[in-house]
Amino acid sequence: MALSPTAVAARRVFAAAAHSGQEGGSARTWKILSFVLAVPGVAVCMANVYLKMQAHSHAAPEFVPYAHLQLRTKRFPWGDGNHSLFHNAHTNALPDGYESSHH
C-alpha cells in the first residue's frame, strides 16, 4: 500500500520528533496534535449530533404486535411481572402496546 507524499513527509516529521535528542519533544508534538486534530474533531462530532437531533422527529413508531417479539414465558420477579428491570414507558412497549399515548 503506497502512501501519499504528504503522508510520507508527515511520518518523517513525527519520526524525527520522536527520536530527537530534545527533552519533551514528543510530548510537545502530541500536545499540538491534540489541539489541532482532537479538539476540532470533537467539535465537529458535537455539531453533527446537535444537527441530527434537531431534525429527529419525536413521534413514536406505530406499535405492531409481532408474535416473535415480546414473548413472556414467565413473569419477571419484580413489580407486576410485566415490566423489565429497566423499563421505560416512553420507549419500551408491553405485549399489548405502549403505556402512554404521548412520547
Note down, in words, how this protein is organized.
With 103 residues, the protein is an all-alpha fold. The protein has 2 helices and no strands. The chain has helices at residues 5-19, 25-55. The longest helix is centred in the middle third of the chain and has 31 residues, at 25-55. The model has no long low-confidence stretch (mean pLDDT 82).
In short:
The chain is mainly α. It has helices at residues 5-19, 25-55.
Number of helices: 2
- How do the SSEs run, as a string of H and E? HH
The N- and C-terminal alpha carbons lie at a distance of: 51 Å
Radius of gyration: 27 Å
The number of E-state strands comes to 0
Features of the shown structure:
single chain; 103 residues; mainly alpha; 0% strand
Walk me through the topology.
Blueprint: H1 5-19, H2 25-55
